[in-house]
Amino acid sequence: MTRFHEEPAPGLEQAYQGTLLHAEESAFQKIEVYEHPTFGRMLVLDGLVQTTTRDEFCYHEMLVHVPMIAVAEPRRVLIIGGGDGGTLRRVLEHATVTEAVMVEIDETVTTVSREFFPEIAGDAFDDPRATVLFDDGAAYVRDGSEPFDAIVIDSSDPVGPGVVLFSEEFYGQCRVRLNPGGVLSAQIGSPFYFPDEIAMALGNAAKAFPQVKPYVGAVPTYPGTLWGYMLAGERIDTDADTAGKRAAERGLQPRYWTPEIQAGAFAVPAFVAEVASGSPVFPKP
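and the corresponding structure tokens:
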């Protein structure tokens, strides 16, 4: 077995042992697939675990169902990133959806995912409602004009090249592409290890949207387990009763998300609220 690890913070190593099934360099990043004895198959990009067959639902359901349920009748949805297809699959689980456009910059990630992780996307890539484009997501938002009811950003963390997807300019362009009542969701990283990046993302989104709310969920393979997301829009509805009714009408059968979580996820721990406000909450070493 091969040992591999990531280092989310100084002096911290999150290590795994697994069998390497595939490795290649795309035009954008190093792509690896491992077989892990606990988490099944793992997709690793540039040394960072992106998803696994065992816990992918924890991430994808919170990223997708929370914004989708917040919209009364989402029909057209834009996904930025999401090359493994898990986000696309969850979007298409909503019976109201008539078109889902996924814009992924690295086609190789999707090719590898379809070969080694077919269960994550299911039939999503072949669904007639799905349009999959391999292009720059930020450019697609900037240069297009068609409106959407929800925009879901399934990207890398707000560091390095991916930082453009967390900028004030990008969020402003996203708002222009949303229909009235539309929302935007994004993963924004670990509150423990990336507090500055989370504060930056939420602050920039607040300059573009009237309402921005952080929420949290648990993803076992992500550093710190507690993972941060945000929901942005003109008016955000997180009522559990409304969520339950909409989920039933759309035929959702989630494994992580529940109507109660729709409301409860926004009741973030006090330190996460402090992180979101930009306050320093961790003592310097």
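(Above: one complete record from the training split.) The first strand starts at residue 2 and ends at 9.
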